[in-house]
Amino acid sequence: MSIMLKKLLLGASAALLLAAPAASAQTRKKAKAPAAPKAAATAARPDRTDSLALRRLFDEALLRGESYENLRYLTGTIGPRLSGSPQAQQAVEWGKATMEKAGLDRVYLQEVMVPHWVRGGRERGEIVGNKDKGIRVPVCALGGSVGTGGKLKAGVVEVHSFDELKALPDAAVKGKFIFYNRPFDDALIEPGAAYGRAGDQRRSGAIEAARRGAVGALVRSLTSARDDNPHTGTMAYDAAVPKVPGAALSTNAADQLSQLLKANPELQFELEMECTTLPDEKSYNVVGEIKGSKFPNEIISVGGHLDSWDLAQGAHDDGTGCVQSIEALRLLRAAGFKPERTIRAVLFMNEENGTRGGNEYARLAQQNKETHVAAIESDGGGFTPRGFTLEADPATAAKIMRWAPLFQSYHAADLLPGHSGTDIEPLKAAVNPKALIGYKCDSQRYFDIHHTAADTFDKVNRRELELGGASMASLIYLLSKYGL
């Protein structure tokens, strides 16, 4: 147990003690203070019925859970689901049918226009040394990249930061590939933090390379794993500079290129990619809801993103989040609960290369003047649950943290400040929910497969997946019962 978690649980215990009934009148010298409102007292001190309710949800998930089989169909029958693709449309139809089968009160689609980028049939990278002897290395186009227009061969300049690139003279970089080789910081306990620190070279590497007259950007894959799987991911362009190709090298390839450059700074790299961007396509968010029995106009959203990169099945990113979100509502219904507030499961479209689904959901929420109590997102994989990350003001966060003891038996009691999720973030400016919440699982293995051909169904453990859905359903139960 972490020191931070111990402090959290001690704080929760203290809150429970402070909320305990006051001493009797015979033992007090001052007049008895007015009793706190019943709802507030209950919210401060969840009772045994809450513990039993969570147990029912976990029993249903572990004994009769449907997440795993839903994921098997989504990943195995439909497969990769990049925005604008036929598979993305199949996933929309699957999501709607699966929610209807779960018996939700209402299931509907939200239309949204999404980008349509196509990888193309050929991706090839080769390190070219003396006498044009070549070494083939694993590469993949970054999402949104332009193609190379045939084979593109040039010298290579290795850098580890944008500042390092800016310090180089023009003659050293013009007409060459910029090779961004900043690795993950493995000293960081949370892999997500390492991903965040290394991610600028993938997102903006092509812009900074073009600004200096380079012909392309080669980026070390964003992972601690040492293997031959290149990691794709979105990249950006700037209208003020030319568009140059951006490609990811596997970590083994990046290490090899770096080593060979030290021995021969004059070597070249040959890149060939056929990717292109087509006109935007019409797609949809998929939304299903259970109407609140007491406060139907107060909404709690839970969701994941339906699209995935095209290299694999998109199992952990984010098939697991989608099936867990649907399952959370199914579990509440199967366990016999009638949520007091309206609960929505949302399958967002286009998180990976545009976030247009999340933006459209927020726009419609604002347009319809909806009241959102909280929004939860699962987009960190379907591994063993650890708890939730919170974006909320201190008073609201403290209310949620008081529920930590209820999750302790399920090893999901980490209720701590942190980023919630990309798709629910636009809600903050649109309708300002009391809390944005991210499902937190054990992420140590997540970036080994993230955005790679290895993100497949066989990497998902059934019990871990079902436990995650039960954890999400449990938090929704508490949010619906007590509000914020």
Automatic annotation (TrEMBL):
GO cellular component: extracellular region; lysosome
Assembly and oligomerization: Homodimer. The monomeric form is inactive while the homodimer is active.
GO MF entry, a single one: metal ion binding
Signal sequence extent: 1-25
Sorted UniProt keywords: Carboxypeptidase, Endoplasmic reticulum, Glycoprotein, Golgi apparatus, Hydrolase, Lysosome, Metal-binding, Metalloprotease, Protease, Secreted, Signal, Zinc, Zymogen
Residue ranges of every copy of the Peptidase M28 domain listed in the record: 285-467
GO biological processes: proteolysis
UniProt biased composition (Low complexity): 33-44
Region of interest: Disordered: 27-47
Pfam families in alphabetical order: Peptidase_M28
Protein name (database record): Carboxypeptidase Q
Location of this chain's protein in the cell: Endoplasmic reticulum; Golgi apparatus; Lysosome; Secreted
Organism this protein belongs to: Hymenobacter cyanobacteriorum
